């Protein structure tokens, strides 16, 4: 079973990510394999606080045994991941440019 959570992130308010991911986790906690694909295309802007929160949320989900993948279509956000320590927390193979690639990986 896979859940899709589309988030609009005005001014990088990632509280919705935490709330919705926790709600999804509670619904699927009894599943043998939990997967979550976060589509970041709805994030109009990501500042340092937003980036730090996103790293923390993804790390927490992975620690809770939820296979988490990000879809990052915007070049600016991908560049931000490159020039910061984002990939020290989140593995590069969890970040995809296209939604169908992330879903395919999550289904494997």
TrEMBL record:
Coiled coil: none annotated. Gene3D superfamilies: STAS domain. InterPro entries: STAS_dom, STAS_dom_sf. Residues 36-106 form the STAS domain. It holds the Pfam family STAS. Signal peptide: none annotated. This is STAS domain protein.
